[in-house]
Amino acid sequence: xxxxxxxxxxxxxxxxxxxxxxxxxxxxxxxxxxxxxxxxxxxxxxxxxxxxxxxxxxxxxxxxxxxxxxxxxxxxxxxxxxxxxxxxxxxxxxxxxxxxxxxxxxxxxxxxxxxxxxxxxxxxxxxxxxxxxxxxxxxxxxxxxxxxxxxxxxxxxxxxxxxxxxxxxxxxxxxxxxxxxxxxxxxxxxxxxxxxxx
Length: 198
Known about the structure:
Blueprint: H1 5-15, H2 22-34, H3 37-53, E1 55-56, E2 63-64, H4 70-73, E3 78-85, H5 88-96, E4 102-106, H6 125-132, E5 138-141, H7 147-160, E6 166-169, H8 185-193, E7 196-197
Parallel strand pairs: 3-4, 3-5, 5-6
Antiparallel strand pairs: 1-2, 6-7
Helix pairs in contact: 1-2
GO biological process, one term: DNA repair
Organism: Streptococcus vicugnae
Family: Belongs to the RecR family.
Protein backbone atom coordinates (compact mmCIF):
# COMPACT_ATOMS: atom_id res chain seq x y z
CA UNK A 1 0.00 0.00 0.00
CA UNK A 2 1.26 3.45 -0.88
CA UNK A 3 1.29 6.02 1.87
CA UNK A 4 1.41 9.81 1.53
CA UNK A 5 5.01 11.01 1.24
CA UNK A 6 5.31 12.44 4.80
CA UNK A 7 4.20 9.12 6.34
CA UNK A 8 6.39 7.09 3.98
CA UNK A 9 9.40 9.20 4.98
CA UNK A 10 8.57 8.78 8.68
CA UNK A 11 8.25 4.99 8.25
CA UNK A 12 11.60 4.97 6.44
CA UNK A 13 13.20 6.91 9.31
CA UNK A 14 11.91 4.42 11.89
CA UNK A 15 13.23 1.44 9.87
CA UNK A 16 16.74 2.84 10.24
CA UNK A 17 16.59 2.15 13.99
CA UNK A 18 18.07 -1.21 15.06
CA UNK A 19 15.54 -4.00 15.46
CA UNK A 20 12.71 -2.05 13.81
CA UNK A 21 11.17 -3.77 10.80
CA UNK A 22 8.67 -2.33 8.36
CA UNK A 23 5.59 -3.42 10.38
CA UNK A 24 6.86 -1.90 13.63
CA UNK A 25 8.03 1.21 11.78
CA UNK A 26 4.57 1.63 10.24
CA UNK A 27 2.90 1.20 13.64
CA UNK A 28 5.27 3.76 15.22
CA UNK A 29 4.75 6.21 12.37
CA UNK A 30 0.96 6.08 12.70
CA UNK A 31 1.22 6.29 16.50
CA UNK A 32 3.40 9.40 16.14
CA UNK A 33 0.92 10.98 13.72
CA UNK A 34 -1.80 10.45 16.36
CA UNK A 35 0.18 12.25 19.07
CA UNK A 36 -0.66 15.82 19.99
CA UNK A 37 1.54 18.62 18.65
CA UNK A 38 2.83 19.16 22.18
CA UNK A 39 3.85 15.49 22.54
CA UNK A 40 5.54 15.47 19.13
CA UNK A 41 7.43 18.68 19.94
CA UNK A 42 8.56 17.24 23.29
CA UNK A 43 9.69 14.01 21.58
CA UNK A 44 11.62 15.93 18.92
CA UNK A 45 13.12 18.24 21.56
CA UNK A 46 14.34 15.25 23.60
CA UNK A 47 15.92 13.64 20.51
CA UNK A 48 17.76 16.82 19.62
CA UNK A 49 18.84 17.46 23.22
CA UNK A 50 20.26 13.94 23.55
CA UNK A 51 22.17 14.36 20.29
CA UNK A 52 23.52 17.81 21.19
CA UNK A 53 24.19 17.46 24.92
CA UNK A 54 25.76 14.03 25.12
CA UNK A 55 29.43 13.39 24.49
CA UNK A 56 31.98 10.67 25.19
CA UNK A 57 34.05 10.83 28.37
CA UNK A 58 37.62 11.81 27.52
CA UNK A 59 38.90 9.27 30.08
CA UNK A 60 36.82 6.09 29.65
CA UNK A 61 34.79 6.72 26.48
CA UNK A 62 31.41 6.27 28.19
CA UNK A 63 28.44 8.32 26.98
CA UNK A 64 27.98 11.28 29.32
CA UNK A 65 26.62 14.79 29.72
CA UNK A 66 29.69 15.89 31.70
CA UNK A 67 33.39 15.34 30.99
CA UNK A 68 34.95 13.45 32.65
CA UNK A 69 31.94 11.29 33.47
CA UNK A 70 30.55 10.74 36.96
CA UNK A 71 32.07 7.25 37.18
CA UNK A 72 35.59 8.46 36.38
CA UNK A 73 35.33 11.29 38.90
CA UNK A 74 33.86 9.11 41.68
CA UNK A 75 36.72 8.81 44.19
CA UNK A 76 34.98 5.93 46.03
CA UNK A 77 35.44 3.57 43.06
CA UNK A 78 38.22 0.97 42.99
CA UNK A 79 40.87 2.50 40.73
CA UNK A 80 42.91 -0.70 40.53
CA UNK A 81 40.42 -2.41 38.19
CA UNK A 82 39.13 -1.46 34.74
CA UNK A 83 36.26 -3.33 33.07
CA UNK A 84 36.52 -3.14 29.27
CA UNK A 85 33.21 -3.20 27.38
CA UNK A 86 32.07 -2.78 23.79
CA UNK A 87 29.71 0.18 24.27
CA UNK A 88 27.93 2.41 26.78
CA UNK A 89 24.88 0.12 27.00
CA UNK A 90 27.18 -2.49 28.58
CA UNK A 91 28.26 -0.01 31.27
CA UNK A 92 24.61 0.55 32.15
CA UNK A 93 23.99 -3.21 32.33
CA UNK A 94 26.95 -3.71 34.69
CA UNK A 95 25.95 -0.77 36.88
CA UNK A 96 22.49 -2.28 37.38
CA UNK A 97 23.92 -5.21 39.36
CA UNK A 98 25.53 -2.76 41.83
CA UNK A 99 28.33 -5.22 42.59
CA UNK A 100 31.13 -3.90 40.40
CA UNK A 101 32.82 -0.83 41.88
CA UNK A 102 35.81 -0.32 39.61
CA UNK A 103 36.30 1.84 36.52
CA UNK A 104 35.30 1.23 32.89
CA UNK A 105 36.73 1.59 29.42
CA UNK A 106 34.37 1.66 26.41
CA UNK A 107 35.82 0.40 23.11
CA UNK A 108 33.03 1.64 20.80
CA UNK A 109 33.25 -1.52 18.75
CA UNK A 110 35.15 -4.78 18.44
CA UNK A 111 38.06 -5.98 16.34
CA UNK A 112 36.48 -7.69 13.34
CA UNK A 113 38.90 -8.82 10.64
CA UNK A 114 35.98 -10.03 8.48
CA UNK A 115 34.54 -6.50 8.48
CA UNK A 116 37.87 -4.72 8.12
CA UNK A 117 37.86 -3.38 11.71
CA UNK A 118 41.29 -3.48 13.31
CA UNK A 119 42.71 -2.39 16.69
CA UNK A 120 43.21 1.19 15.45
CA UNK A 121 39.51 1.48 14.56
CA UNK A 122 38.26 1.12 18.14
CA UNK A 123 38.99 3.01 21.38
CA UNK A 124 41.98 0.87 22.32
CA UNK A 125 44.95 3.28 22.22
CA UNK A 126 43.43 5.41 24.99
CA UNK A 127 43.13 2.29 27.19
CA UNK A 128 46.84 1.58 26.81
CA UNK A 129 47.64 5.24 27.50
CA UNK A 130 45.44 5.12 30.63
CA UNK A 131 47.24 2.08 31.94
CA UNK A 132 50.69 3.67 31.65
CA UNK A 133 50.01 6.31 34.29
CA UNK A 134 47.64 4.52 36.63
CA UNK A 135 47.43 2.20 39.59
CA UNK A 136 45.46 -0.40 37.60
CA UNK A 137 46.58 -3.96 38.26
CA UNK A 138 43.64 -5.84 36.67
CA UNK A 139 41.78 -5.40 33.42
CA UNK A 140 38.53 -7.37 33.12
CA UNK A 141 37.47 -7.93 29.53
CA UNK A 142 33.69 -7.96 29.21
CA UNK A 143 33.16 -8.18 25.48
CA UNK A 144 30.29 -10.29 24.15
CA UNK A 145 30.86 -14.03 23.70
CA UNK A 146 31.01 -13.81 19.90
CA UNK A 147 33.85 -14.40 17.43
CA UNK A 148 34.61 -10.65 17.34
CA UNK A 149 34.36 -10.40 21.14
CA UNK A 150 36.82 -13.28 21.51
CA UNK A 151 39.21 -11.81 18.93
CA UNK A 152 39.15 -8.48 20.76
CA UNK A 153 39.72 -10.05 24.18
CA UNK A 154 42.66 -12.14 22.92
CA UNK A 155 44.25 -9.08 21.29
CA UNK A 156 43.91 -6.98 24.45
CA UNK A 157 45.33 -9.83 26.52
CA UNK A 158 48.38 -10.17 24.23
CA UNK A 159 49.03 -6.41 24.37
CA UNK A 160 48.66 -6.07 28.17
CA UNK A 161 50.32 -9.25 29.48
CA UNK A 162 53.92 -8.02 28.89
CA UNK A 163 53.14 -4.97 31.08
CA UNK A 164 52.47 -7.27 34.03
CA UNK A 165 48.78 -6.35 34.24
CA UNK A 166 46.44 -9.18 35.22
CA UNK A 167 43.94 -9.71 32.40
CA UNK A 168 40.71 -11.59 33.18
CA UNK A 169 37.59 -12.40 31.20
CA UNK A 170 34.02 -12.58 32.43
CA UNK A 171 33.07 -16.15 33.35
CA UNK A 172 30.87 -18.08 31.00
CA UNK A 173 27.67 -17.25 32.81
CA UNK A 174 27.01 -15.41 29.56
CA UNK A 175 25.86 -17.67 26.74
CA UNK A 176 27.98 -17.75 23.60
CA UNK A 177 26.47 -15.41 21.03
CA UNK A 178 24.58 -13.35 23.62
CA UNK A 179 24.87 -9.61 24.28
CA UNK A 180 25.73 -8.23 27.72
CA UNK A 181 23.00 -5.58 27.51
CA UNK A 182 20.30 -8.30 27.39
CA UNK A 183 21.65 -10.46 30.23
CA UNK A 184 19.79 -10.47 33.55
CA UNK A 185 21.42 -9.18 36.73
CA UNK A 186 22.03 -12.64 38.25
CA UNK A 187 23.84 -13.85 35.12
CA UNK A 188 26.00 -10.70 35.07
CA UNK A 189 26.75 -11.03 38.78
CA UNK A 190 27.86 -14.66 38.37
CA UNK A 191 29.91 -13.75 35.33
CA UNK A 192 31.82 -11.01 37.14
CA UNK A 193 32.33 -13.09 40.30
CA UNK A 194 33.62 -16.09 38.33
CA UNK A 195 35.84 -14.26 35.86
CA UNK A 196 38.95 -16.13 34.71
CA UNK A 197 42.47 -15.03 33.96
CA UNK A 198 43.53 -15.08 30.30
